[in-house]
Design brief:
CATH topology: Rossmann fold
Structural class: alpha/beta
Number of helices: 7
CATH class: Alpha Beta
CATH architecture: 3-Layer(aba) Sandwich
Distance between the termini: 18 Å
Shape: globular
Order of helices and strands: EHHEHHEHHEHE
Largest sheet: 5 strands, parallel
Radius of gyration: 14 Å
Length: 140
């Protein structure tokens, strides 16, 4: 089954923190992992925050940013989703950010995987309970 991942999952592929092992387990199915291309600045923001906090160095941050465009996950252009993202955001009464990930999942008939509990809760309202996975619930 295809899955759309967000930056909270992708960063854990590279940074040893809670959820790292579960995130790595997803890579066993890397040909089935997708994300809207808005994930690139999301990952950059997450990497920047970890550098500022002293959790990782600039070199590791640079390697993570380079890796996000290497083909895993497969990036889906937001321009192809924009009309539907707008409708989902209006329906959810939320900003477009999460709606972009959910629309991507809907368009691919995919599940949504996140490490963010709030995002999972909102996603379940939109996609349904069975299509949303909280990373902490996965076996490593």
């Amino acid at each position: 089954m295809n899955a759309v991942v967000d930056s909270s999952v992708v960063v854990k592929w590279f940074v040893r923190e809670l959820g790292h092992d579960q995130a790595l387990a997803l890579l066993d199915h890397q040909d089935e992992l997708f994300a809207p291309d808005v994930i690139v600045p999301d990952v950059i923001d997450a990497v920047w925050a970890r550098i500022v906090a002293g959790e990782i160095g600039n070199d590791q941050g640079s390697a993570i940013v380079t890796a996000i465009t290497s083909g895993v996950p497969t990036l889906v252009p937001v321009s192809e989703l924009a009309d539907d993202v707008f409708k989902v955001a209006l329906n959810m009464n939320r900003l477009a950010h999460l709606a972009t990930y959910l629309t991507c999942a809907q368009s691919l008939d995919a599940n949504f995987v996140t490490a963010d509990e709030d995002a999972a809760l909102m996603a379940r309202e939109s996609l349904g309970e069975d299509r949303v996975t909280l990373l902490s619930g996965l076996a490593s």
